[in-house]
């Protein structure tokens, strides 16, 4: 049931959310990354020519769920710790969790920033790692190793982030030039997905062994975006599954032990032409997946129940002083139940859904 009245929505939200904190960040949020359990970094857009980084200290209402505190008086405010206008355009950011370092891709490869400089809260430039890739995609294998990709005709690189050494490179030699999106399935196995057709190349980068391809795209599919449960942060077990979400709203899961056909395929009845779809997994429940990028909402589904929708967060169109019509650009799961999400209307939400009756 759609609720038009703002007052009705906020009254209803008391029942729908265990926690809901809403902020106006001041500028459109392009991307967000968790630095550690206390801070997160935003890539924001001042205007079409200029982006900036800002580091925020999370509310104690959020961090105390991680520490297990039973304090009653908890702060619900975000604190701006530092900010930095960028000297050159950045495309994507990736935080190295717990290391106070931030990776940013640009036109020469990879820039590294320190989140704290000399025991201050300032962001400081560290170094630039020059790679022959223009605004590459990036995925972290672990805290010191990353995959960098661009497209099927350029070499994909496995790089040592401590010194810029290329540990492995390989080229797919495809006839058609397609953007190549990387995901990690474990510390050895990586998947490189051709965005326009879903063809996914599996590669054991340590042994340099190629595995059988997955053909995830269907005729008529729009761009596909891969995702995996694997996370070096949680030291999670290697994943036997890889998921794909298309711009036409089709979600598929493949089992790597038999990738000839999808383990599950479901039409979410969503569609978009935007190139910003995000698929994230609940770090505490392998069956729960969240999706954003179609509209102003974040959708949470239960994979074990054939992608049953168990929650829809629509708070970004309800955030005070922010435009009603917007698009969610990114979201992430905190190590506990909190989800953080950002949108083009400057809204930043921190929330815990109540799914007890779903």
Share of residues in helices: under 10%
For the sheet with most strands, the description reads:
5 strands, antiparallel
**Beta strands, count:** 29
Mean pLDDT metric: 88
Q: Structural class, from helix and strand content? A: mainly beta
Instruction: Give the low-confidence spans.
Output: none
Strand content: over 45%
Summary tags:
single chain; 358 residues; mainly beta; five-stranded antiparallel β-sheet; four-stranded antiparallel β-sheet; 2 helices; 5% helix; 45% strand; globular
What is the gist of this entry?
The protein is mainly beta and 358 residues long.
Structure commentary:
The chain is mainly beta and 358 residues long. 5% of the residues lie in helices and 45% in strands. The protein is built from two helices and 29 strands. It has helices at residues 6-16, 60-67, and strands at residues 17-24, 29-34, 39-47, 50-57, 79-85, 92-96, 101-106, 109-114, 124-130, 137-142, 145-149, 156-160, 166-170, 180-184, 189-194, 199-204, 209-210, 214-215, 224-227, 241-246, 250-255, 264-267, 278-281, 288-292, 298-302, 308-313, 328-333, 339-343, 347-353. Strands 14, 15, 16, 17 and 18 form a five-stranded antiparallel β-sheet that branches. The longest helix has 11 residues, at 6-16. The chain starts with 5 loop residues before the first helix and ends in a 5-residue tail after the last strand. The model has no long low-confidence stretch (mean pLDDT 88).
């Amino acid at each position: 049931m759609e609720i038009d009245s703002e007052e009705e929505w906020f009254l209803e939200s008391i029942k729908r959310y265990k926690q809901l904190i809403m902020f106006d960040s001041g500028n459109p949020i392009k991307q967000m990354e968790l630095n550690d359990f206390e801070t997160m970094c935003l890539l924001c857009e001042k205007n079409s020519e200029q982006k900036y980084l800002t580091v925020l200290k999370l509310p104690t209402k959020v961090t105390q769920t991680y520490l297990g505190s039973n304090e009653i008086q908890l702060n619900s405010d975000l604190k701006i710790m530092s900010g930095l206008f960028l000297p050159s355009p950045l495309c994507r950011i990736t935080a190295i969790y717990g290391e106070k370092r931030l990776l940013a891709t640009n036109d020469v490869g990879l820039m590294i920033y320190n989140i704290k400089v000399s025991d201050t809260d300032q962001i400081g430039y560290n170094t630039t790692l020059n790679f022959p890739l223009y605004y590459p995609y990036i995925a972290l294998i672990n805290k010191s190793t990353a995959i960098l990709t661009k497209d099927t005709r350029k070499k994909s690189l496995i790089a040592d982030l401590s010194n810029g050494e290329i540990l492995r490179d390989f080229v797919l030699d495809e006839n058609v030039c397609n953007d190549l999106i990387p995901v990690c399935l474990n510390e050895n196995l990586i998947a490189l997905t051709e965005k326009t057709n879903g063809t996914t190349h599996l590669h054991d980068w340590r042994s340099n062994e190629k595995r059988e391809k997955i053909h995830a795209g269907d005729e008529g599919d729009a761009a596909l975006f891969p995702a995996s449960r694997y996370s070096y942060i949680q030291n999670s077990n290697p994943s036997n599954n890889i998921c794909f979400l298309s711009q036409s709203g089709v979600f598929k899961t493949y089992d790597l032990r038999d990738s000839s056909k999808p383990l599950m395929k479901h039409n979410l009845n969503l569609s978009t032409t935007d190139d910003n779809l995000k698929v994230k997994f609940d770090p505490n429940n392998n069956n729960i997946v969240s999706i954003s990028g179609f509209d102003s909402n974040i959708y949470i589904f239960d994979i074990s129940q054939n992608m049953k929708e168990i929650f829809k967060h629509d708070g970004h169109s309800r955030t005070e002083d922010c435009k009603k019509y917007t698009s969610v650009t990114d979201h992430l799961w905190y190590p506990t139940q909190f989800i953080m999400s950002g949108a083009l209307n400057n809204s930043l939400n921190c929330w815990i859904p109540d799914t007890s009756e779903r």
